[in-house]
Design goal:
Strands 7-8-9-10-11-1-2-3-4-5-6-12 form a 12-stranded mixed sheet. The termini are close together. The protein is mainly beta. About 2% of the residues have low confidence.
Length: 208
């Protein structure tokens, strides 16, 4: 179960070309379970069928409607990814500079798919944990150097090649297949407060 949670955390784990995208992306998420006695519906309910992703410079926040993980916040100055679990007020964090996974091979295929009418290149990461496929367009351009310390979840391995947030992600591992597809993109100026930890928040290192 601990390994399953780790996979979930790293999965759950994104303007004009030349500018760094700032704003909101809404994703639709689905999970296909490979675990006996855990249905697709149960897994999707746990992790969330919808996701709101906010990003500004080197900080991002991901909020889902899942029953297990409510939101995740990456704070660049801390190089930590904080996770708010539904059953605890203590925020669990993973060090951005650590990565239990390993990328074994990188492959790029040009113009393989369209998402929201945008032509996407496909980046395939063959990893120790499984296969990760990302579909991206320069519409969501990102300065990858802002995330050079974000090794957790293979995030920098992805960004240093794509230099853009994914419009679609497909992750396949022994526990599940995860698909996340953008349904809405909104360029907008975001307040720095969106990326602050709650006042007097208690934190602890994640066991996952």
């Amino acid at each position: 179960m601990k390994k399953l949670f780790l996979m979930m955390m790293t999965t759950a784990t994104i303007a004009v070309f030349g500018q760094t995208f700032q704003g909101k992306i809404i994703y639709k998420n689905t999970y296909e379970s490979k675990i006996p006695n855990l249905t697709n519906e149960q897994l999707t309910t746990m992790m969330g069928a919808t996701q709101e992703y906010l990003i500004k410079n080197g900080d991002y926040k991901s909020t889902t409607n899942g029953t297990m993980v409510q939101w995740q916040l990456y704070v660049q100055k801390d190089n930590k990814l904080y996770s708010k679990m539904a059953d605890s007020d203590t925020l669990l964090y993973n060090e951005g500079g650590t990565n239990p996974d390993e990328v074994l091979n990188v492959e790029v295929k040009k113009g393989t798919e369209k998402v929201l009418g945008l032509p996407c290149d496909e980046l395939i990461l063959t990893c120790k944990s499984g296969i990760q496929k990302y579909y991206y367009n320069s519409r969501l351009n990102v300065d990858a150097s802002l995330f050079a310390g974000h090794l957790f979840g293979n995030w920098y391995d992805y960004l240093k090649v794509s230099k853009a947030l994914p419009l679609k992600t497909v992750v396949e591992n022994p526990q599940f297949t995860f698909t996340s597809t953008a349904t809405e993109i909104k360029d907008m100026k975001l307040d720095d407060k969106e990326f602050h930890l709650p006042e007097n928040a208690k934190t602890a290192k994640s066991p996952y």
